[in-house]
Amino acid sequence: MKIVIAEFSLVVLIGPSGCGKSSFARRHFLATEIVSSDGCRALVCDDESNQRASADGFELLNFIANKRLARGRLTVIDATSVQKRARRELLELARTHGCPAVAIVFDLPQELCVARDAARVGRNVGPEIVQKQRLHLDQALGELADEGFEQVVVLTTAEQVDAASIER
After folding, report:
1. Domain boundary assignment for the chain
2. Quick one: what percent of the chain has pLDDT higher than 70?
3. Is CB count within 10 Å lower at the N or C end of the chain?
4. Any idea which architecture 2-167 has in CATH?
């Protein structure tokens, strides 16, 4: 599947932990284009899995995204973004800077996400959290088109994720 995005856009990767958002981001975008919630948590407390640093981490994520968009730079958000509140802040940034917002949704089976999360060393969230994120994603799937995204792409299998390409 070819995903066509504007050179100046905000790309929001949406999906539960373990669905492959970070791997997808690294495969298709420059490291400087990716703003990761895990990376921002690590910047503020030296531990990307420390959930107690999430508020500060997301404040930093939004700050960096705002600065990149103000300079007309493609910005990719690598966070679960399964909750409407988090997406609302990102959509507001896109509107403020006059760029399209693109949602790439990783609607992969929960069992696969749980297995991938369990295989990660040092930063797994556990099956209960993945299940909760999956429930939020199920709700989000019915809302995304009306939230203000210019484009919503839903990937439903690992094969689709692997075969996807980005064209600017």
Report:
1. 2-167
2. 100
3. N
4. 3-Layer(aba) Sandwich (3.40)
